[in-house]
Amino acid sequence: MTDAAPDFDAAFGVQLDALMRWRRDVRHFRSDPVPDAEMQALLANVSLAPSVGHAQPWRLVRVRSGERRARLADHVDGQVLAAAERYADPAQRDQYRSLKLHGLREAPEILAVFSDDRPVAGHGLGIATMPEMLRYSTVMAIHGLWLTARARGIGMGWVSIVDPAALAAMLDVPGEWTLIALLCIGYPAQASDTPELEQRGWQAREPLTDRLFER
Amino acid sequence: MTDAAPDFDAAFGVQLDALMRWRRDVRHFRSDPVPDAEMQALLANVSLAPSVGHAQPWRLVRVRSGERRARLADHVDGQVLAAAERYADPAQRDQYRSLKLHGLREAPEILAVFSDDRPVAGHGLGIATMPEMLRYSTVMAIHGLWLTARARGIGMGWVSIVDPAALAAMLDVPGEWTLIALLCIGYPAQASDTPELEQRGWQAREPLTDRLFER
């Protein structure tokens, strides 16, 4: 049974723009928990994401064990230290080291998102030449989760300074799953319409005109 | 200068859910053009997408040449035919062949989206261990574009049955750009809250409970 198609008005469009402008990669979280009903509402929206061949390849692991969380945080701290060595310029290296890059110890919820590289669903449609479409589908599910969370005042941070294979082992998942994201979820310490890396002088937003071409 | 943080209310959340539920991968387009002001508004939102290290790796190519569009459509038709051969079951192969998988000849706008694998912006932050984060960032920009379009009544279809290297050559882009998506954009022939692949019996939506785990 299908309801009538909604007609999104201009006021909604303005709010959607604001949602995108105020979505942030959050690294500073308040310590209060996200009510379970809120978490369930967030997670329910994942099913609405687009996926190649309707394969729905996302696999979500909610990390409930404090011991596992501590191991994840220690792992990321090690990777962050190692990555600092890539910066030959001492000033840039110092700046990098001064950045807070994750909230894995404070965020009330930790979610690891994997993508199934060999899902039964979808029957292979759309991945003959671009098997990476499965992982891209999972990425869109994460982006939808991010926007849904922000609309409810909940912040999310995507931690990518990880060894994906090490995380898969730590979380004891099937071999055909590839780690896409390690996510911190909780109420943000503050709101902003400016990325933290821009506030901290690491990288400014650049004009779209530099990224738009015609052929 | 930062405005006060918006407070998204429950009514907005309901509309956002509806937006996600009524976003579709569109293959049937009306022939009327998308006004250029609408295209510019859509494209402007791309800059709001999250990106690793704030690297903004998306590179958009708007295809204006009819000759290039025809070559793209011919290429995809060839790939679709070849992919049919992967289905050993004749009934499934026939069903696959009966699906309309792209609107490259009818959609008023064609956009090819690439990701720069070696961007200057971002200074390498967040990609020491997961260089694929650059491509994932570009995928999120596409998903944001998709939602923004649907909020304006504009449909989008993501065509992935392509040889990415062949498309890069056809569109004459720099070697460090990787094709992420070939997009058809225009007003959809109809609205639906059910994926076309589900309507056509290819693949149903499956419950999130099958995809949610705890550790």
Helix content class of chain A = 25-40%
Largest interface: A-B, 105 and 105 residues
Q: Beta-strand percentage of chain A?
A: 5-15%
Rg over alpha carbons of chain A: 19 Å
Structural commentary:
Two copies of one chain form a homodimer. Chain A has a four-stranded antiparallel beta sheet with strand order 1-2-4-3, with helices on both faces. The mean pLDDT of chain A is 95. The first copy, chain A, is an alpha+beta fold and 215 residues long. The termini of chain A are far apart. Chain A has a single domain (28-190), classed as NADH Oxidase, CATH 3.40.109. In chain A, α2 runs antiparallel to α5 (133-151). Helix content of chain A is 38%, strand content 15%. The first copy, chain A, is built from seven helices and five strands; from the N terminus they run ααβααβαβαβαβ.
Secondary-structure topology with pairs:
Two copies of one chain form a homodimer.
Chain A: H1 10-22, H2 36-46, E1 58-63, H3 66-84, H4 90-98, E2 109-116, H5 133-151, E3 155-159, H6 164-170, E4 177-186, H7 196-199, E5 212-214
How would you concisely characterize the structure shown here?
Two copies of one chain form a homodimer. Chain A is α+β, with helices and mostly antiparallel strands.
Key phrases:
homodimer; 215 residues; alpha+beta; NADH Oxidase; 4-stranded antiparallel beta sheet; 7 helices; globular
